[in-house]
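Quick one: C-alpha cells for this chain, please?
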Amino acid sequence: MLSDIEIAQAASLQPITDIGQKLGLAPADLHPHGQHMAKLTQETVNRLHAQPARAKLVLMTAINPTPAGEGKTTTTVGLTDALNLAGYNALACLREPSLGPVFGMKGGATGGGYAQVVPMENINLHFTGDFHAITAANNLLAALVDNHIYHGNALQFDQVSWRRCMDMNDRALRRITINQPHAYDTGFDITVASEVMAIFCLATDLADLTRRLGRVQVGLSVTGTPIFASDLQAEGAMTALLKDAFQPNLVQTLEGSPALLHGGPFANIAHGCNTLVATQTALRLADYVVTEAGFGADLGAEKFMDIKCRQSGLRPDMAVVVATVRALKYHGGVEVADLNTENLAALSVGIANLKKHVDNLRQHFGLPVLVALNHFTQDTDAEIAQVRSAVESWGSSMHVCRHWAEGGQGALDLAHAVAALAQQPAASRLLYEDHLSLPEKLNAIAQSLYGANAVTFSELAQQQLQSMAEASQGLPVCVAKTQYSLSSDARLRNVPQNHALHVRELRLSRGAGFVVAICGDIMTMPGLPKQPASSRISVDDNGRIQGLS
C-alpha cells in the first residue's frame, strides 16, 4: 500500500475553477492560490450569506482518541465522496491543519489513504497563509500593549493578560519574562489555542470580526478596570491583517469532491470547529454539508453545540460517531502491540466508551446518531459483529466503512444511511442555559458528559471565579482538557468512574465570547515528542516533499 503522501502526489487534480463550478461558482467568485487552491472572494461570501441555507448539516465526531487511531477526518472525506458518488451533492467543511501536530506526534490533518483532501503538502504546511495572518494579528496586539507601557503607560496597566502565540509546538516558550521597564511574566500559546483564532472562527462577518477583536481584554489597570484592545485602537489593524484570511479556502478530495477548509482551533485546548463563515457558506452551496469537530464527542461535539451553535443559531441535523475495533479494544485494556489480535472480551469492555458518546449526543443534545466503524484489515468478522450487535441494541445502526482503501465506494452504505436519517426531524438542543453560573455550567458538562462526580477548583481558579463572576455571566464555557479520556486524567481509559474534573485555571475570552477552563495538566502550548514527525520529512532534488503524513 502506498503512503498517504505517495497517494496524494500520484493523484490527478482538477483545476480549482472546475471544483468551483460543481458548487455553482464562477471563476470570478474565486481568488486562486495556484491551480488547485482558491479563496472565495468576500463579495461571493456576502452574496451567498444573503441567500437561505438549504443543506442538511452532518456533524462528524468520534470516541476518545487512542494511539490506535480513529480516522475522523478520513471518514469525513470518505462520507463526502460517497454522498457525491451516490448523487447527493455534498460538500466537506473542515479545519486547516496546524504545524504543531504536522511536525509533532499526530502528523497532518488531511485524511488518509484514498480519502484525502488535496493538495496534501500545501494544505498541511503553509496553505493560503491563514495561520500566519492569525499569528501576526495576535502578536501585533502584544507588541502594542508593550509599546504602550514603554511610552508612558497612560492606561495604567498593572497586569498584562494577553499572550503571544506561534503555530509550532515549543514548550520552552510556555513561560517567558518581558523585560519592560516593569518586567512581567507571560508566555506563548500555540496559534490554534489563541483567542484570535477563536474569534476568527466565530465571527459572522468582517464587522463582527472587528467588534470582537476590539472586545479582547488585554489586562487590568491599577484600579482593577479591564483594558481592551479597542483602548489601544488595535482592532482595525488586526482586521486588516486578517481580512484576506477571513475568506474560506476551497480545495478538493482525491475524487474531486469540493471541500472548504477554514480555521483550525484544537478541540482539547480550544473550541475545535472550523469557521462559522465557512459553514454558513457551505450550507448555501450543497445539499449535504459534512463537518467535523475535533477529537472525541466530549470535546469537539460538545463545543460545536454549546459554543458554535449557541452563538450562531446553527443546529446539525444528525451526528456520526467514528470508532474502530482497534481503538475500542484499547479502551478495553489491550496495549497497542496486541491490538491486531482478536480479543472479544476486551472489545466488549471498550464498547462502553462508544456507548457513552452515542448516549451523550442523543440524550443531552437530542441528535439522531449513526456509528461509522472505520475498517482495518486486521478486524475479524466476530469483532465487527460484536460491535454491530451492541450498537443495534442501543437503537442505532453501525456501518462498516472502507473508504481508506476504497475511497467513496467504501462508504456508500454509510452515505445512504446518513442521507435517510438527515431527512428525519431532529429536536437538537444545548446542554445548559445561558443564565447558569460558571460552576453550574462546568458541573453540567462534567457530570452529564464526562461522568464525573464533582468539579474541583485550584486556589487560583477559585480566585478567578470571583474576579470574573460578573464578566462571565451569560458566556458558555470552553473546557480545555486531555482528549484521551472522558476525565481530565489522560491515563483513565474507557468510561472512568468516581473521578473529579479539576479546574486549574480560568481565562476570560471576551472577544470569542466564552470562558476557557484549563483542567488537569493540559498545556496551551504543546511540546514535541521524543521522536517528532519532523525527523521523517525531507525534500528530494526535484523539490518533492517526502515523509509527510
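The mean pLDDT is 96.
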